[in-house]
Design a protein that fits this description.
It contains 12 helices and 2 strands, in the order αααααααββααααα. The protein has helices at 9-26, 36-55, 66-93, 95-100, 106-133, 145-169, 173-186, 207-212, 215-227, 235-238, 246-267, 270-273, and strands spanning 201-202, 205-206. It has a two-stranded antiparallel ribbon. A hairpin with a 2-residue loop joins β1 and β2. α3 packs antiparallel against α5 and α3 crosses α9. It is globular, with a radius of gyration of 20 Å.
Length: 274
C-alpha cells in the first residue's frame, strides 16, 4: 500500500478495521465485555458523588441536576484521558503493522481515539437516560454539542500526536503523563463546581476565569451547559469579552498543528527506533 491522503478509500478502510480491532481487543477475555464502558464511569461516579457531594458537601445548589452534570463531567474526562493515553502508546503497540505497511502513521492514533469516542457515545447515552428520567428539558443549545466535542477531541488528538512521538523514544513519558493528569483534573471544575473558586483570585485575576482559558475545561463546561443545565457557568457567562475565546481556541489549534508537524517530522524514524 502506498502512502496516500487520509481521505483515500484504502486509508479509511484501514482506519475502520483498526477501530474494530482496538475495540474488540479492549474487552477480550472480559466476562462483562462492552458493559465495562458503562460500568466503569458509573462506579467512579458513585464514589465521587458520595465523597464530594454527600460527605464533603461540595455541590452547587444553583445548578439543577448537579449529580448528572458531575457524571457527565467524569465521562468526558474519562474519554479525554483514555483517548490521549491510548493514542500515546498506539504507535509502539502497532509497531509490527507499521513495518509491514506504508500508510499515514497518525491513522494508528486516530483509531485508538475513535475507540475511546465510541465508549464516550455509550456513556452519553447513559447520561441522557438519567437526564430524561430527571425531567431535563432541552433547548436549541444542544446543536452546539458536536462543536464542543470536536474541540475536546482536537485537544486530545494534538496531545496524543506529541506524546506518542516522545513515547517511541522515551517510555518514561507515560509516567510523567499520569502525574500530569492528576494535576490537570484538579485544576479544572470537573469533580467540584466552578462556583467554589468564583471568588478566589491570583494577582487580582479570577481563578474561575483562568480555568476557562483551558480549552479542555471550556469544552466540558459547554457540554454540561448545552446538554444538562443551562445554569452551568461557562466561558461565555464568565467573560463579557468574547474575543478572549481566541486564547483557548488558539491553544487547541496550536496543539493540533504543532502535533502534526512534530509527529510527521519524526514518523519516518519510528520503525528504526522501535
Amino acid at each position: 500500500m502506498t502512502k496516500m491522503g487520509f481521505f483515500d478509500k484504502r486509508n479509511r478502510v484501514l482506519l475502520a478495521e483498526l477501530v474494530k480491532t482496538d475495540f474488540k481487543l479492549r474487552y477480550q477475555g472480559s466476562v462483562l465485555g462492552i458493559l465495562w464502558s458503562v460500568l466503569k464511569p458509573l462506579m467512579i461516579f458513585v464514589v465521587m458523588y458520595f465523597v464530594f457531594v454527600k460527605f464533603l458537601r461540595i455541590t452547587d445548589p444553583s445548578i439543577p441536576n448537579y449529580a448528572i452534570t458531575l457524571l457527565l463531567g467524569l465521562s468526558l474526562w474519562a474519554f479525554f484521558t483514555e483517548a490521549v493515553t491510548l493514542g500515546m502508546t498506539s504507535i509502539v503497540a502497532r509497531g509490527d503493522l507499521m513495518r509491514k505497511i506504508n500508510f499515514p502513521k497518525y491513522i494508528v492514533i486516530l483509531s485508538s481515539m475513535v475507540s475511546a469516542l465510541i465508549s464516550l457515545s455509550i456513556n452519553l447515552l447513559v447520561v441522557l437516560a438519567f437526564a430524561i428520567f430527571a425531567g431535563v428539558k432541552y433547548h436549541l443549545t444542544v446543536l452546539w454539542l458536536p462543536f464542543n466535542i470536536i474541540l475536546l477531541f482536537a485537544v486530545a488528538f494534538g496531545l496524543a500526536l506529541i506524546l506518542s512521538t516522545l513515547y517511541v523514544k522515551f517510555r518514561d513519558v507515560s509516567h510523567i503523563w499520569e502525574v500530569f493528569m492528576q494535576i490537570l483534573v484538579y485544576s479544572m471544575p470537573i469533580m467540584y463546581p466552578i462556583s467554589m473558586v468564583s471568588k478566589v483570585s491570583i494577582f487580582g485575576v479570577s481563578v474561575a476565569k483562568l480555568m476557562m482559558l483551558n480549552p479542555i475545561a471550556l469544552a466540558i463546561q459547554d457540554i454540561r451547559h448545552n446538554l444538562i443545565a443551562l445554569e452551568t457557568p461557562t466561558f461565555w457567562t464568565l467573560f463579557q469579552n468574547y474575543w478572549m475565546a481566541i486564547i483557548p481556541i488558539s491553544l487547541a489549534i496550536f496543539l493540533v498543528v504543532f502535533g502534526l508537524w512534530y509527529f510527521n517530522k519524526n514518523s519516518k524514524k519510528f520503525a528504526e527506533i522501535m
